[in-house]
Amino acid sequence: MIDIKRIPDYAEVLVEKDEVNDTALRYEVLEDKVNVYLTAPTSHPKIVKLRWAAKITGDVRILGDAWERSYADLGFIGLTTEKAHPWYFVMKHAGGTDCVGVAVRPASLISWVVDCEGVTAFCDVRSGSIGVELGNRELLIGSFMSECYPSDTDNSFEAACDFCGKMCPDPILPTEPVYGGNNWYYAYGDSSYDEIVSDASLQAKLAAGLDNPPFMVIDDGWQPNSCAGPWVANEKHGDMKKIADEFKKMGVRPGIWVRFLRDDTDAIPAEWRFENRKYLDPSRPEVIAHIKETVRRIVFDWGYELIKHDFSSKDIFGLWGKDTNKYLTRGEWKFYDRTRTSAEIYVDFCKAILEATEGKAYILGCNCVSHLTAGLCHINRTGDDTSGTEWNRTRRMGVNTLAFRLPQNGKFYMADADCAGFIKGKIPFSLNKEWVTLLAKSGTPLFISAPDGTFNEEEFAYMKEMYKIASEQKNVAIPLDWGYNATPAKWSIDGEETSFCWFDETGASF
Predict the structure, then answer these.
(1) 10 Å Cβ neighbour count for 29?
(2) Pick from 125, 144, 167: which residue ends a domain?
(3) 59 and 184: one domain?
(4) Would 483 be classed as within a structural domain?
(5) Using the 8-state DSSP alphabet, how is residue 271 labeled?
(6) Mean pLDDT of 143-147
């Protein structure tokens, strides 16, 4: 058993070069966790390294998490010190399952390295790429937790679900299941008022007669600049309030995509941006006020009931999660506010978005730092983009993230494994049908991208059936072959074993 609910066996704090290291660590050992505090009156700490000794022998397999979205890269692996596991890890062994991690929303960016002699936590307390200025403040860098789930059979999935619940005792979840449409995976940013209203009409028809209405999320392409602000309607969309009103008349709930930290207009003061970077610095009070104003306009002036905010990790840290390992950031950059850690600034950014809604809209995070948004967003896109044109991408990205981050569903937030994209002549319905079926019966949000007129009569009837299931999200799904299959095909759905076929007769693509 790996037990880290105790004082670490070794600790070290890395500070800025040539500084006198006056840092100190304090430990608070509780029944279910150990809180680790850091002080540094004059020096500027960067990384806190904590080591717990533990003999790890025999055949063990380890599943780690991802910094933000996953990229078809999750799965159980053996011991390797070259691979760091962000936030938490699940270790299967002959006697059961051990889970080790940190409570959500820590004040540092934490990754784990596991070897045969123990586990090491690397806690990044920097502000950007420089040491944080704590002054007289004591920083709770994290609440460290572990649990052992003994079993003669493989209970790793149930163990992971339970442990995720322990790491996040305060999730915010939708009051009713969220499902519906998103226009990205067929429109890819090329849309208009008439097209998006037509998209909503398809959602209304698919959900006709259901008590819980679907959403229609307007993705990138409604604003003047591609993938950037200002967050006002372009000529093709016109009045965003009018669009939301049209949705509501059809019994469809309006949602919208936003990238808060990129605005290409000259109206944004230069000092609001990072040095030598075009993105807005969320450590500035003026930027947070600007974001809140945008949220209030979308929710209260226009009437949108879901905000999907995107690029909220890449625009701050400069990297996709897949391009990182032990640390989420590299290079030379800094925040305006150097007295808060990167993790603290990120959490405050997410809090501001949520607070500005005043409970009138759901938050769907995409490219968000997952462990820092848990408890601050209702839904989180847990994997990289699926596709409306490439089935292999949907299979890799979608199925992998659904299976391996499913333990977070309902524990951190509702876990959105991304859309099923329908473009005539691209992905056969028979393949997308498998993906839609698993999503609908997984107990997670189901989103599709499809224009009106996509489905024939038989396909439409099947999609209506899946929408009914998705509108309730009562099913319990467990990936049975997740221990050895990166895209699990054997699932238990409400206790009944079900197989999914992720390949047609041609097999894997070139």
Answers:
(1) 10
(2) 167
(3) no
(4) no
(5) G
(6) 98
Q: What angle do CA 371, 256, 184 make, to 5 degrees?
A: 90
Q: Is the domain of 49 the same as that of 151?
A: yes
Give the confidence band of 277 by pLDDT, cuts at 50, 70, 90.
confident
184 and 157 inside one domain: no
Residues 42 and 104 in one domain: yes
Determine the Cα–Cα distance for residues 294 and 258; give it in Å rounded to an integer: 9
- Partners of 64 in the beta sheet? 89
| Closest of 35, 19, 221, 17 to residue 129, by C-alpha | 17
Nearest to 360 by CA among 410, 303, 290, 297: 303
Q: Which two structure tokens, joined as six digits, stand for 296?
A: 């209030």
User: What is the three-class DSSP state of 89?
Assistant: strand
Name the residue range of residue 94's domain: 10-167
CB 243 within 8 Å of CB 196: yes
Q: For residue 285, give both structure tokens.
A: 């009070």
Q: Where are the alpha helices (DSSP H) in 5-44?
A: none
Give the total number of structural domains in the chain: 2
71 and 109 part of one domain: yes
- Is pLDDT above 90 for 153? no
Query: What H or E segment, with its residue span, contains residue 434?
Result: helix 429-440
CB 46, CB 16: distance < 8 Å: yes
**Distance (Å, rounded) from C-alpha 99 to C-alpha 92?**
9
Does residue 203 sit in the same domain as residue 157?
A: no
Question: Within a domain: residue 504?
Answer: no
> Percent helix, strand and coil across the chain, each rounded to 5?
25, 25, 50
245 and 101 in a common domain: no
Q: What CATH number corresponds to the domain at position 218?
A: 3.20.20.70
Q: How many alpha carbons fall within 13 Å on the CB side of residue 44?
A: 16
Mean pLDDT of the chain: 96
**CB contact at 8 A, 217 and 183:** yes
Kindly give the pairing relationship between strand 88-93 and strand 490-493: unpaired
Mean pLDDT over residues 19-33, rounded? Answer: 97
Residue 172 forms part of a structural domain: no
Work out the average pLDDT over 491-506.
93
In a shared domain, residues 292 and 418: yes
Q: What are the b/e assignments for 398-421, b being 16+ CB within 10 Å?
A: bbbbbbbbbbbbbbbbbbbbbbbb
Distances (CA, A) of 471 to 177, 180, 319, 464: 6, 9, 35, 10
> 2 in a domain, yes or no?
no
